[in-house]
Amino acid sequence: MVLNRKLGIIDLNKNKVLVREIPVELRKKHLGGRGLNWYYLYNSIRPDIDPFSPENVLAIGAGLLTGFPALGAGRTQISTKNPMTGGVGDSNMGGAFGPQLRLAGFDHLLIVGKAEKPTYILVKDGGIEIRSAEHLWGLDTHTVQKAIREEVGDDRAESMVIGRAGENLVAFANVMNGIKNAGGRSGTGAVMGSKNLKAIVASGDIDLEVHDPEKLLDYSLEVDRRARNTKWAKTLGRLGTPLLYDVSYTTGFIGTLNWQYNTPGEDGKPLEAENLEKYSVKMVACIGCSVHCRHRVKIREGRYRGVVTEGPEYAAIGAFGTGVGVYDWEFVIKCNEMANRWGVDLISLGTTVAWAFELFQRGFITENDTGGLRLEWGNENAVLDLARMIVERQNIGNVLADGMLKASEKIGKESLYYANQTKGHPNLLTDERGIPSFALGIATSTRGADHLRSRPGIDLFQLPEETLEKIYGHRIVSDFTAYETKGIMVWWHELLYNVVDSLGICKFQTVFNSANSPRFEDYVPLIEYATGIRLTREELMEIGERNYTTERMFNVLNGFSRKDDYPPERYFREETKRGLPFMKGRKLDREKYEMMLEEYYRQHGWDENGVPKKETLERLGIAEPDYSMLEVL
Amino acid sequence: MTSEKYLMVFPELCTGCRECEIACSLKHDGVVGYQKSRIRVIRDVFEGIEIPVVCMQCIDAPCMNSCRVEAIYVDENGAKIIDYEKCIGCRRCIVVCPLGANFLNPETGKPIKCDLCDGDPVCVKFCSTGAVRYLSPEEINSEELRLASKNYIKALIEREM
Ligand code: SF4
Ligand code: SF4
Ligand code: SF4
Q: What is the CATH number of domain A2-203?
């Protein structure tokens, strides 16, 4: 059965492994992936634990539907205490690792302790082995995966690995699978590095039995076709996420020169999505995905000749383009490739680099700190060199590698004003000043500034209010510059994205940027045919609420509250300087923001300080953490 | 025989999503598991390779010809079908398949191969890019065919290197 995949608990201190069943009751409460990860972590990480201490726990989870042929259901969740925020650290990764983990017999892994020497974990045919990785330490993320495949003798083995950034405990280091699948945005790679854990490898072929294969096939095909035939998915499958850039820079919501501007204007034209096509060999996909949103790119001549990689995504255009003032696809491709080989979150890296450039411009950082490097806008070498310095922890790179909060303590408190972050977590290079719902979303996200916890992407389409009411079940104001009702919209998306992360489905195949894409009700039959568990749409929403509130409680226990739910101060003080008339001259209105935040708390059943109310916790069945999970070891 | 259709593979369109594989194993064995699938995608993202490997239903089929107990027969769709009542599991057919498209089911020790799903291939339905197609002779454009075989062979050769 799909439901017979196990939980593996691994203690690297004691060199001990335990294998446990996952009770169906827990599935009904949390599904899998992100939801179940956080159930486990909430009950195993005490608030006083430092993210880099051996007591921190790393949870790996395949979604409930991971491995099935629809909606990009191939995803894996990696969760831990976040080294940048001290709260929720959580990554959702595409690629092929999750399906392979399930075929190896497991759905969830909990890893605690610290290995004495570099180590990797091999999950194979229902068993778990801890092996030496001394010969693999120092290798980049691509080389190490190839070496591991050779070593375990399985050309279908999939690994989740760290690179130099993770080994060096760069606070925003990634885990990687394949060429570009990143468990990004939360320092998961750094936590692996702190455990001396180079890789987790899944190998095996234990059949995944399903409840009703015939119905599952028919329904998968139907829902898959519907998702891939939306205009959004079709364009995405041709241009990839760079398609978002064209709207973004013409309108004026892409962070430019570290948010001093909200678009590069005409300067940014070379980075339009169509210009990437000349480097594109073909489109490739994650397991179980028919949208195939990523390019395989190749640079055939010039300075970066010979680079072959996958992507780059929209985020890379911001990180190594507008953010630092370089407008050249080849440079973006090169940086993208480097970041993936280093195993570092390129959004956080790009945002940190852009911040450092502005600090240089304003005199917070000088050539003395950079080893003579002049951090001047548009200087390609300066960008690549500073990025490398961060990954290798040299000069000012050593300070920046600890994350924005810690770095600002050393560079000077006022420098934090120029950091685009929430809870210490760097933001994507977008500019949310003109879109209050986006601003609220990044600010309330449990993992710190982030666009993938709630971004109500369809906000920008100005859909008729009847359509919005049908989707959200509430009246939602159509105008994307409005504040009222947007708290409800953000709440709804937090639930949806939690559910899809817990199912292992890709967000791009949900109501993310298309109103016609699948949502809660469409997952009901998939879950039933795959697992035999019957859940209603309402029950699914409640699971999303339970899971999200569990994360919120983890943050609350770690000292977070309303004070941490604000976007960067700059958004309230400085108006946007460029863009189309309706985007120019915009900044956030503090009073209206407060109102929106309160509406959001009310909708969640949290008090005015953002703490879940007692009756909400009772309704959702969230108990006090019992921390006994790992005592069995 | 002109009513026959052919299952064709176009590797340059394959994205490596494995939806064809998963669907095939679900349809034939009710499970997700690639060792049950009759189509298998050679996928190596580091080398940039995605090649779906599947039986081409050879006219003068080596698998069928080599079978000493005549366990392989041709059905009305032109599919070479294994009759498991007769199959003794000698695996000779696996060895002689020039495409490596006759696979071993490790559970039974017997071969498994594409049966064209009774003329309604599920892999084709799940393939979003047309990397696997089920075409009638009229639909087969010779230019496309040339390209398909060229790419297929090229892909296999690159794999060897
Ligand atoms: S299994 Fe191989 S030999 Fe037999 S018909 Fe198919 S391709 Fe030809
Ligand atoms: S036609 Fe049917 S049996 Fe043959 S590979 Fe496709 S799904 Fe499998
Ligand atoms: S479904 Fe099509 S694109 Fe996906 S792996 Fe199979 S042949 Fe390739």
A: 3.60.9.10
